[in-house]
Amino acid sequence: MKLLIVDDEPPARERLRRLLAEIEDCEVIAEAENGEEALSVCGELKPDVVLLDVRMPGLSGIQVARHIDSLEDPPAVIFTTAYDQYAVDAFETEAVGYLLKPVRKEKLAHALRHAGRISPSRLQKVAESARIEHKREQICARLGEQLRLIPVPDIYFFLADQKYVTVKHKGGENLIDESLKSLAEEFSPDFIRIHRNALVAEKYISAVERTGAGQYVVRMRECGSVLEVSRRHAAELLRRIRGTG
Amino acid sequence: MSANGTAQPSSGPTFFLPDFCGSRAVLAVVLIVELVALVFAIARQALHDNFWTDLATSSLFLLWVGLTCTAVLCRTRGWLHTLPTARAASIAILLLVATVAIVSEVVFQVGRYWNIDADNAAFSIFPRDHAGFLLRNVAVGFIVSALALRYFYINAQHQRSIEMEALARIRALQARIRPHFLFNSMNTIASLTRSNPEQAEQAVEDLADLFRASLNDATTRISLEEEIEIARTHARIEELRLGKRLRVEWDIDQLPLNARVPSLIVQPLLENAVYHGIETLPEGGRIAISGSRVGDALQIEVRNPMAHEAGYGEREGNRMALENIRQRLELAWPGRARVETELENGEFCARLIFPYADSPLLEGSSPYS
Q: What's the pLDDT tens digit per position in A61-115?
C-alpha cells in the first residue's frame, strides 16, 4: 500500500511516518506540507491512500480531497485532525474516515484497512456542517502525467460532452473528469446552468440574445463563444440576468 | 395527559412555568392550598365558632380550585411555552381566574341543589350569596395567581442566571487555552518522545506550566515578568510544532517587569496570532510582541501577518479571547484600560493599554518605585 502524508507540521508528519513504518505492508512514498504540493505528488506518484490534515494553510484538507477526487482513479482519503468538533461530527455522520491526533497505531491500521474514496457530495456535506471552506479556488485538470490548476475566476464556462467536461478559461481549454452537476452545486451562484451540457460564469456573460427561431443564446465576453440556452433553463437565466443587471 | 410526565421536550431556555403534570408539582399545590386555607381559617376565626369546620370547608373548596388549576396549567403549558413571556403570563392568569370562577359557580350550584329544602343556612357549608361568593373568589384567585406566577418567574430567572454564570465561567476557561492548541501540542510531544526525548521533556514541562497558569482564578494578579514568561512558554511549544514557519520577536525592554497585571492577558494574544495568522500562511511569518511605557500607561502590542483568504472562515474564537481580556482589564482598572485592534496591510495588531502606577492592584503586593 503506497501512502502520502499531508500535514503542515513537521512533527506530525514525522510521527505518522514512524507509526506507518511499524504497520505491515505500508510504504510512505512521499510527504507534503500543503495542499498544492499534495496534489502534484498525487498526480505523479499515484498513492493508494492519502492521510490528509483538515486544517492547513492555503487549501484546506477538504478542498484538497475535492481535487483528489477529480483525478482519474483517485486514491482513498483519511482525514487527520487534532481538534475540530464540527468536522469530527460531520465525519461521523457521513462515514468519512478520520483520525484524531495524536494518532493511535491500532486506529491508524484500522482506518487504513477501511479507507475508501469520498464522493464530492459527502465532502460538501462535511464541509458545510464543519464550516470549512470547500469551494475550490482552482480546478485541477490533467495533462498526461502533469496536473494543471486552473483558477476558478479565470473560467468562462464548462461544457459537457459524452464522457468529459471541457473547461474553457483564460489560459485555453482543458478536459476534466467531473460531473457538471457537482460543479454546478459547488460553484453556485457564480456559475449558471444554461443547458443540460453547459455551465457558464455569470460575470463573463456579455449578452443574452434571441435568435429568429425563438431560441436564446448566451454570448460570452473575452472568449467570444456563443452558447445555446435550453428552454428549461431560459427563464431562470433571464431572471438572474435582469435581477443582477 | 402529557406524553411524558417529567421530561420536557425542549430543554432550551427554561420556561418560567414549572411542569404541573408531575407528582411533585401536585404535592406542592396541595401544600400551598392547605396553607392558604389555614390563613383563611385563622383570619376568620372571630367570625366562626368552629375553627376546624371552617378549615375543613375552606380546604375542601380550595383543593378543588387548586387541583383544577393545576390540571389546566398542565394541559396548557405546552401551548403557553410557545408565546412571549408577557403574553403567556397574562393568559395564564386569565385561565386561572376563569377556572376559579367556574369551580366557584359549580360549587354554588351544587350547594343550591343540596340545600333546596334544608333551610338551616347557618350550618350550611355552602355559600348563600351568589354574586358576592363569585366576586370574592375571582378577586382572591387573581391575587394568588399573580403572586404565584411572579414567584415562578423570579425562580426561573434565578435558575437561568445560575446556568448562565456557569456557562460563562466554562467559556472563559476555554477561551484561555484552546483545545486545538492542547491536542496539537500533545501530538508534537508524542512525536518528539522518540525522535528527541529532551525536547519532549521540555515541552511537557512547558505545557504543565501553561496549564497551571490557566487554572489560576481569572482574577489572579501576577507580575508582568511572570506573564511574559507564560507567553514565552507558549511560544516555545508553538515553535516546536510549526518549525521554521514561526518566528517570534520580543521587544519588551521598556516594560517595567514588576508591574502587576491580571494573569493571561498576553498569552491569548500570542495564541490568536498563531491560530489566525501564522497557521493560515503556507510560508508562516513573524509575530512581533512589543511593549512600551507612555507616562503612567503601559502598552503591549502583538502583531501578526494574516492570509487574505484563509481556508478556515472562523473568526469567532478571536473575538471571544479579545473580549475575555477586555473584560478582565476592565475589572482590574474600570474605565482606564482598553484593548484596540487593527487590520492594516494584511497585518493584524492587538494592543493592550492599561495604567502602571497608582493602580488599585498595588494593594497587598510588594511596594516598588
A: 888 888 888 887 889 999 999 988 778 888 888 888 899 999 999 999 999 998 8
C-alpha cell read off for A99 = 483520525
**Spacing of C-alpha A95 from chain mean position:** 19
Between A12, A55, A59, which is nearest B187 by CB?
Answer: A12
What is the SS3 assignment for B9? coil
Whole-complex ipTM: 0.71
d(CA B168, CA B161): 10
B305 and B330 inside one domain? yes
Q: Assess contact for B72 and B96: CB atoms under 8 A.
A: yes
Q: Which residues constitute the domain of residue B99? A: 23-171
Residue B194, phi then psi, degrees to nearest 5: -95, -40
Q: Would you state the cell numbers that stand for residue B44, as one nine-digit string?
A: 376568620
**Partner-chain contact A57 B192, CB within 8 Å:** no
Phi, psi of A51 (to 5 degrees): -95, 115
- Residue B368 phi, psi dihedral angles, 5° rounding: -145, 170
Q: How many Cα atoms occupy the beta-carbon half-sphere of A133 within 13 Å?
A: 16
Which residues of A fall within a CB distance of 8 Å from B281?
A: 57
Enter the C-alpha cell of residue B210. Answer: 501553561
pLDDT digits (tens, 9 = 90+) for B238-282: 999 999 999 999 999 999 988 998 888 899 899 989 988 998 888
| A60, A63, A82 ranked by CB distance to B180: nearest | A82
Which ranges of chain B does DSSP label H, i.e. alpha helix?
A: 23-43, 51-81, 85-114, 130-176, 179-195, 197-215, 224-242, 267-272, 316-332
- Among residues B115, B137, B171, the one where a domain terminates is B171
8 Å CB contact between B290 and B251: yes
Q: What share of chain A is helix, strand, coil (3-state, %, to 5)?
A: 35, 30, 30
Domain formed by A138-244, architecture = Beta Barrel (2.40)
Check which CATH number belongs to the domain holding B245 and give it.
3.30.565.10
Quick one: A2-130 is in which CATH superfamily?
Answer: Response regulator (3.40.50.2300)
- B339, β-bridge pairs: B352
Within an 8 Å CB–CB cutoff, is residue B180 touching chain A? yes
Q: Which of B171, B187, B215 is the last residue of a domain?
A: B171
- Please list the residue range(s) of chain A that carry CATH number 2.40.50.1020: 138-244
